[in-house]
Amino acid sequence: MAKYSVDPGRIIAWKVLVASEKSDDHYVDYYLNHKLDADKKNGKRHPFVTELVMGVIRWKLQLDFYILNFYTKKISKLDIETLSALRMGIYQLKMMSKPDHATVSETVEMLKRRNRGAAGLANAVLRKVSNADIEDLLKQAKLSELEELSIRYSHPQWMIKQWISNFGKDEAIKLCNYNNTPPSQWIRVNRLKVDLKTFIVFLNKYEFEYDQSEKNDVYFKVTRAGRLLQTDAMKNGWFAFQDISSGFIAGLLEPKKNEKILDACASPGGKTGYITELMKDKGIVHAMDNAKVRVEKLDDTIQRLGYSSVKSILGDATKDITEKYDKILLDVPCSGTGVLSRRADARWNRSLENLAEYPPLQTSILKHAIDALLPGGLLVYSTCTLNTQENGDVVDKVLAEYPDIEVEAITDPALKEYIDEKGTLNTLPWRDGLDGMYAIKLRKLK
Question: Which of 176, 265, 334, 384 is catalytic?
Answer without folding.
Answer: 384
